[in-house]
Amino acid sequence: MYPKTFDDLIYEFQKLPGVGAKTAERYAFTVLSWNEDEISEMAETLINLKKKVKKCTCCGNLTEDELCEFCKSSKRNQNIICVVQNPKDISVIESMQEFNGVYHVLDGLINTQKGVLPDQLNIMSLLKRINENTEEVILALDPTVEGETTALYISKLLEGKCRVSRLAHGIPVGSHLDYTDAMTLLKAFEGRKSS
């Protein structure tokens, strides 16, 4: 229906998560309407992304340097480590503007059904970061079966080495009990506090 080059662009856009055929087609038409400078800027940005962005040698976060901004910051508490699944989770936590520790990116979660085992994750480098000064490791992982499995695995590895905590799970503010699933309700009861 379209020229091959245009179909190729649609195909490339469909490789992006959540982009179906219609959205990819819209993106292709948008790019087609750009002038040459705009297309060159986009192409250069993509090439620079691949050339310059790498993983922090300490925590696994995205960086253009050896260490990410959190690992090299003297203003961050280097003795509190928040463990996350991927770099995207860091920006969510940072948006609170409350956490002043550092991060550790696992690059996934244990999922035996998909063949993702602990040795394929960034867990060993986390263990190397733990020392006598480590105050706490916060496991900020998704409350899924895979997240729970990964958190339990890491908790066992760190047992007796430092304080390990989890994010609280429970009922979101503004929701109703009759719409809450059993697992969320169970976690809310387990994590209850005195008021």
TrEMBL record:
One of its GO terms (biological process) is DNA recombination. Transmembrane segments: none annotated. PROSITE patterns: RECR, TOPRIM. InterPro entries: DNA_Rcmb_RecR, Rcmb_RecR, Rcmb_RecR_Znf, TOPRIM_dom, TOPRIM_RecR. Gene3D superfamilies: 3.40.1360.10, 6.10.250.240, RecR Domain 1. Keywords: DNA damage, DNA recombination, DNA repair, Metal-binding, Zinc, Zinc-finger. Residues 79-172 form the Toprim domain. A zinc finger (C4-type) spans 56-71. CDD domains: TOPRIM_recR. GO terms for molecular function: DNA binding; zinc ion binding. Pfam families: RecR_C, RecR_HhH, RecR_ZnF, Toprim_4. Belongs to the RecR family. May play a role in DNA repair. It seems to be involved in an RecBC-independent recombinational process of DNA repair. It may act with RecF and RecO. This is Recombination protein RecR. It comes from Holdemanella biformis DSM 3989. The gene is recR.
